[in-house]
Specification:
Length: about 325
């Protein structure tokens, strides 16, 4: 039975994009249901919007073993991008413009981001593709010898696909007035938010990234040039709360959510062999949007923090954390 499940997941991973389209189709009735009109909102009449933006962010991938840890980072990156929206559909593309190296980073990192957004009053759907190039070691345990450190140059590539669904239970709060600015909410209100986070990450590295391997394997020199990669597919139901404070055309909308789910892992290592299996995963999300929602222009900043922790190896874990600040300025066209 387990082999059948693994084969099914392998096929699903190869059809990631098709899987996302199927989920959107299944979720479309909820998107329509979430558009119930109300006198508590003003709907903007423009169909086309342009929104240039700047994002600064810090990503950290920490692997905790039984007796050691290793942290990998692309450094502090800054990117610029442009979002184009037509009615409830939006697409955006961003690219890194600078990278501040930290720790023992070996090369300059690059970052690309592509997103597709669907917005309704009570529903948010966000599909994203991210590509980080040029990770390296930013932190290693003190008990790893200097003779081994010179060989630990993973220069990670991280390809990340994600799709998030959020649904607000309160009809008096507009999610799209907070994140997409398609309309303006007139009165302060809050809502319980339920949703589903789905993520597929693929890591490629030129040497082992597992701290227990680095610490104990005397053959570390032999696996520096080995072809290594790992795939991690995560599904986590989430629940949270958001309150939208309104003052005229200005809003402040703190949000927090937690989730508990499962991660399917498939990774290869020359010294450890291949691993395929399921592990538990938890997530924490904190957002703080603040902005001005005018009739023709809008602008603001959104601070986001996401942490996802999953079990890995025998008694270790993988801790993925991302903090970013997004500054934007939007124009509406009739």
């Amino acid at each position: 039975m387990e082999e059948v499940v693994l084969q099914i997941l392998a096929v699903v991973n190869r059809l990631t994009f098709l899987k996302y389209i199927i989920i959107i189709i299944l979720f479309f009735p909820v998107l329509i249901f979430g558009n119930t009109d109300s006198t508590s909102f003003i709907k903007h009449k423009s169909k086309i919007e342009l929104k240039p933006y700047y994002v600064t962010q810090k990503l950290s991938l920490k692997l905790q073993g039984n007796n050691s840890l290793a942290t990998y980072e692309p450094g502090l990156t800054g990117s610029v991008g442009l979002s184009v929206s037509y009615k409830f559909l939006g697409v955006s593309f961003g690219k890194s413009v600078f990278n501040e190296k930290v720790g023992e980073l070996k090369e300059k990192s690059e970052y690309f981001d592509l997103r597709l957004n669907f917005s309704g009053r009570r529903v948010a759907v966000d599909i994203d593709f991210q590509w980080f190039i040029g990770f390296s070691v930013s932190d290693l345990s003190n008990n790893i010898s200097d003779s081994l450190k010179e060989f630990i140059q993973p220069n990670l590539d991280l390809v990340n696909y994600g799709i998030d669904f959020y649904y607000g239970l309160n009809k008096k709060m507009s999610i799209q007035s907070i994140y997409k600015y398609n309309e303006r909410q007139l009165k302060s209100s809050g809502s319980i938010i339920v949703g589903l986070k789905q993520n597929f990450a693929e890591l490629s590295y030129s040497s082992t990234i597992f701290p227990e391997e680095i610490l104990t394997d005397s053959r570390i020199v032999d696996i520096v040039d080995a072809e290594n990669q790992g795939s991690f597919f995560t599904i986590i139901p989430v629940v949270g709360y958001q309150y939208n404070f309104i003052k005229d055309k200005i809003h402040l909308s703190p949000f927090a959510s937690v989730g508990y789910g499962v991660q399917y892992q498939s990774y290869i290592s020359k010294s450890k062999g291949n691993f395929k299996g399921f592990r538990k995963a938890t997530t924490l999300n904190l957002n703080l949007p603040f902005g001005y929602n005018g009739d023709k222009i809008y602008y603001g900043v959104v601070g986001k923090y996401n942490q996802t922790i999953s079990d890995i190896q025998d008694r270790g874990n993988m801790n993925y954390s991302l903090f970013n600040l997004k500054f934007f300025f939007g124009f509406r066209f009739k």
